Amino acid sequence: MVFLLKMEILNSKPTVISKMKFIIIFCVYLFSSSQAISDENINLIQISEGLYEPWGMSFIDDDNLLITEKTGDIVLLDMKDGSKRRIEHELEFYYYGQGGLLDILYHDGYVYVSYSEDRGNGRTSTSIARGVFDKKKINFNNIFRAEPPISSGYHFGSRIVIKDKYLFASVGERGAGMIAQDITNHPGSIIRIHLDGTIPKDNPKFINKPDWLPEVYQIGVRNPQGMDLSSFNNKIYISNHGAKGGDFFGEVRFGENYGWKIIGWGGTNYSGTKIGDGSAWKPGFTKPLWTWTPSIAVGNILIYDGEAFPEWKGDVLVTSLKFKTLYKLKFDGDEVQGQDVIFKNRIGRIRDIDMNSKGEIFLINSNSNASLWKFEKIKMED
Questions:
Q1: Fewer CB within 10 A of the end CB, N or C, for the chain?
Q2: Which residues form the domain of 137?
């Protein structure tokens, strides 16, 4: 990296003005001290192949992994030998555009799935269902359904996180823009419900937002396809797709508003026109902790807390679909202090990331013939 520094010193006297110009060129090669692993000293090991448009994954235990395929299958993967079995279900999903089966989460014997539900006449909604885990067939029941159903194949979200006894989920705005500011609708929000779908009595509606829908916890998001709970501060964070730029990483906050589509977090409409007045942020709205312009098509996030990469504890691993890249944000729980590229163009578009109890990191790519990959260090010889 080359830095060009131009210095001008002006000495002024009553009768003489002397002007000295110094151009100093520094050639500096910078190696990030926080990037302990580079593209050259990592291994990506293919654990299983033949997945069709995988979207979400969740460990039952270190030997068994659940994966959703957007086309409709729930896969149970044996981590010991890479074998797969398909679990039957009767979810009325609609595979179209960005819709289909989306996120999946195993928790205390139950399986939670977010999906685009077929509501009839070409209309769909981001919905969440729960069922008791079974290796052969899971009988699901809906515990949330975004209203109203919309005729669109865009922006469903949707990730699921459980914190304490609450389920949080991200709901995309379905390409409808300002619906994210309409407090009488769910699209463009973060919702919070009990694990059985009942509504907490300390949600914003019952505290200081009487006009909000009872499930809504935060509004003003566009298409949040990443979400994770930090084990360090017990806060939930999301990643959110902007339009032409304006992807962001930020905190889920009670009763607040991220501002879409009044603001665009530094991005523009795909036509190049301004979003609102062009402001990246305005007072009164939740401020993202990190933004990307141009857009990286941000996927899921993982706030790392494992022993396989102890130097990364507390940092945020971010998957990118557009740039086929795994990023790492240096994060202290309050501020993002910088970004590293861990690897790029190794496994295609990266959809999801998760870790097992040992802190080993796993990734799925977003292709029609996709794979599960294990991420590990190359052991360096002394």
A1: C
A2: 88-268
Distances (CA, A) of 167 to 128, 150, 159: 10, 23, 10
* HEC profile of 296-323: CCEEEEEECCCCCCHHHCCCEEEEECCC
**How far is 54 from 29, CA to CA, in rounded Å?**
39
Prediction pTM value: 0.89
324 occurs within a structural domain = no
Which residues are CB-contacts of 322 (< 8 A; sequence separation ≥ 6)? Answer: 295, 296, 297, 349
Q: How far apart are CA 99 and CA 93, in angstroms?
A: 8
- Please write the tens of the pLDDT for every residue from 146-198: 999 999 999 999 999 999 999 999 999 999 999 999 999 999 999 999 999 99
Residue 313 resides in a domain: no
Place of tokens 């990286």: 296
Q: Which two tokens stand for residue 265?
A: 């977090």
Q: Which position has the token pair 């999946």?
A: 104
Give the CATH number, domain containing residue 228: 2.120.10.30
Asked, for residue 57, whether it belongs to a domain, the answer is no
Q: What share of the chain is helix, strand, coil (3-state, %, to 5)?
A: 5, 50, 45
Number of domains in the chain: 1
pLDDT in tens, 325-338: 999 999 999 999 99
